[in-house]
Amino acid sequence: MKKKSFLSFHLIGDFKSPKFIENPAKIKQILWEAAKRANNTPLKVAVHKFPHQGITGVVILAESHIAIHTWPEYGYLAIDIFTCGKNTRPYTALEYLKKVFLPKRVRIKMIKRG
């Protein structure tokens, strides 16, 4: 097997016209599940619901983090999946998030870090 020339993956996702979920408890569940599907170790989840609309949530992983930020007024949801380790599966987490949020368009950028 070829040795990696980087230490971690950082997937940056833009979801256009997604299904918005404004329930903080549901967002916590979604982030936790995304972490498990990525074969990561979730440590803690924090979610903040803004007074009028929008949510920011992050699950801290032993391997880094997964975060979402929503802007319902612009029909936009940002995804950050930053993971490390030889057994991590960030694209599996991404596919799960696409199934949950059902965006009409998706743009992904993958950065190899380290």
Give a quick rundown of the structure.
This protein has 114 residues and is α+β, with helices and mostly antiparallel strands.
Keywords:
114 residues; alpha+beta; S-adenosylmethionine decarboxylase; 6-stranded antiparallel sheet; 2 helices; 6 strands
Secondary-structure-derived class: alpha+beta
Q: If classified by CATH, what would the architecture be?
A: 4-Layer Sandwich
Strand order of the largest sheet: 2-3-4-5-1-6
| Top-tier CATH class | Alpha Beta
The mean pLDDT is 93
**Order of H and E elements:** EHEEEEHE
Number of domains: 1
Shape: globular
Oligomer: single chain
Overview of this structure, please?
This protein is of the alpha+beta class. It has a single domain (8-113), classed as 4-Layer Sandwich (S-adenosylmethionine decarboxylase), CATH 3.60.90. The chain has two helices and six strands; from the N terminus they run E-H-E-E-E-E-H-E. It has a six-stranded antiparallel β-sheet with strand order 2-3-4-5-1-6, with helices on one face. Helix 1 (24-37) packs antiparallel against helix 2. The protein is globular, with a radius of gyration of 14 Å. The mean pLDDT is 93.
Topology:
Blueprint: E1 8-16, H1 24-37, E2 42-49, E3 55-61, E4 64-71, E5 76-84, H2 90-101, E6 105-113
Antiparallel strand pairs: 1-5, 1-6, 2-3, 3-4, 4-5
